[in-house]
Amino acid sequence: xxxxxxxxxxxxxxxxxxxxxxxxxxxxxxxxxxxxxxxxxxxxxxxxxxxxxxxxxxxxxxxxxxxxxxxxxxxxxxxxxxxxxxxxxxxxxxxxxxxxxxxxxxxxxxxxxxxx
Length: 116
Description:
By secondary structure, the protein is an alpha+beta fold. It is built from two helices and nine strands; from the N terminus they run H-E-E-E-E-E-E-E-E-E-H.
């Protein structure tokens, strides 16, 4: 289904500027606890090609492709195509997603030597 149509049905407040997509993926990586995935997308950039996908080739999404649903956001980095969606929220501001990559990478590199 098109996210554009879902938003039209919801009739969001004019104060809502962002869509927050909450994913189920979380856990501990390299001894760093990671909260469930959260990504924001400006509502103004949602065009009619942004999808909430529940199927692939006529069948339900398998777990490895993000069952039960995922976003497909053409023209953006893959991190915007949130997998394993648990909730979609409309908000006035950007999501506070923190510095996950920095925390994970810093933890991996401290006291280790790497050869490339």
